């Protein structure tokens, strides 16, 4: 269970980081 929670947390963190990068990338393009 702990491993699953850790994986979910990492996935959420990765998703947030990719979201921020995508937002910055869109700002650079515009």
Tell me what the structure shows.
The protein is mostly helical and 30 residues long. The protein has one domain. Helix content is 93%, strand content 0%. The protein contains 1 helix and no strands. It has one helix at 2-29. It starts with a helix and ends with a helix.
List the helices and strands and how they pair.
Layout (H helix, E strand, L loop, with lengths): L1 H28 L1
Protein name: IS5/IS1182 family transposase
Query: Structural class, from helix and strand content?
Result: mainly alpha
Number of strands: 0
List the total number of helices. Answer: 1
- Overall pLDDT, averaged? 92
| Beta strand % | under 5%
Low-pLDDT regions: none
Q: What is the makeup of the main sheet?
A: none
- Tell me the helix content: over 70%
Radius of gyration: 13 Å
How far apart the termini lie comes to 43 Å
Give the SSE string.
Answer: H
Q: How many individual domains?
A: 1
The geometry reads as rod-shaped
């Amino acid at each position: 269970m702990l491993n699953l929670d850790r994986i979910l947390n990492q996935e959420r963190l990765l998703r947030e980081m990719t979201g921020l990068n995508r937002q910055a990338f869109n700002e650079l393009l515009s």
